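Run log // design_07
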């Protein structure tokens, strides 16, 4: 039986994505001409918060932005959430993103306000189920761990984890960086889908539905949010993993970060085929 509407606190980054579309990704030292440029709300924390809300969760977002023009743009899709976003003396975080015609991308993060001590202070106020990513300081994640009843950490961008989490989401490269993990680990495999491990032993595997890839920028965020929400809803682990793969595939079939994130109804529909 599924639980009532799950409640989730996301402690994470809020960025403004500066996105250029190119025919292919540049080689080292090469200059290319973009076919378009857009400013799109992003940040792994904000993306995952928006995704979880669209999937049916009651979401609180804890984050930080600067006192600059980019802040309003970065927050535009978050107004319907329970926001605990502090204005700090640092520029709003930015992501510089190149998206190729085949959906592959390159991303460079400018951390800005996301690494401000104000975010660390806010992290001491969380409770219940909490989701973090590594675009925020270790101290913020440690504070969230100390106060959360259940914690998921999306290990991106990859660095050694400062805490033991109840669920870790990582791709192959990220898992190499963070090393073996006790407990539940969702290993994402791109087009191959994902594997769920418990103390290193495979307990579930899922493949995504076929889609035409457009932009993989927020596919991992959609996957992570859907896996967390599905587990908090009380779904079986295999079903939760299958839904997460479907959410990631839908996001990859659309351009942009937050504009690409699916609803629960869209996940249900693509799984029905």
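design_07 sequence
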């Amino acid at each position: 039986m599924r639980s009532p509407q799950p409640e989730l606190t996301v402690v994470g980054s809020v960025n403004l994505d500066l996105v250029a579309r190119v025919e292919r990704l540049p080689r080292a030292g090469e200059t290319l001409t973009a076919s378009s440029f857009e400013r799109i709300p992003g940040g792994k924390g904000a993306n995952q918060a928006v995704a979880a809300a669209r999937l049916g969760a009651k979401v609180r977002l804890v984050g930080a932005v600067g006192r600059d023009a980019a802040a309003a743009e970065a927050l535009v899709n978050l107004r319907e959430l329970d926001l605990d976003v502090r204005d700090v003396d640092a520029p709003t975080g930015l992501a510089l993103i190149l998206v190729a015609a085949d959906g592959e991308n390159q991303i460079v993060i400018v951390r800005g306000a996301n690494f401000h001590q104000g975010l660390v202070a806010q992290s001491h106020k969380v409770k219940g189920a909490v989701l973090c990513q590594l675009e925020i300081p270790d101290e913020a994640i440690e504070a969230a761990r100390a106060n959360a009843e259940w914690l998921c950490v999306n290990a991106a961008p990859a660095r050694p984890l400062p805490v033991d989490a109840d669920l870790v989401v990582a791709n192959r490269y990220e898992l190499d960086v963070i090393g073996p993990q006790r407990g539940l680990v969702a290993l994402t495999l791109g087009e191959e889908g994902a594997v769920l491990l418990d103390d290193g032993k495979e307990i579930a595997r899922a493949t995504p539905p076929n889609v035409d890839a457009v932009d993989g920028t927020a596919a991992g965020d959609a996957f992570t949010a859907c896996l967390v929400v599905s587990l908090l809803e009380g779904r079986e682990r295999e079903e939760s993993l299958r839904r997460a793969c479907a959410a990631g595939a839908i996001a990859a079939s659309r351009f942009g970060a937050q504009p690409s994130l699916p609803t629960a109804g869209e996940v249900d529909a693509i799984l029905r085929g």
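The chain has a mean pLDDT of 95.
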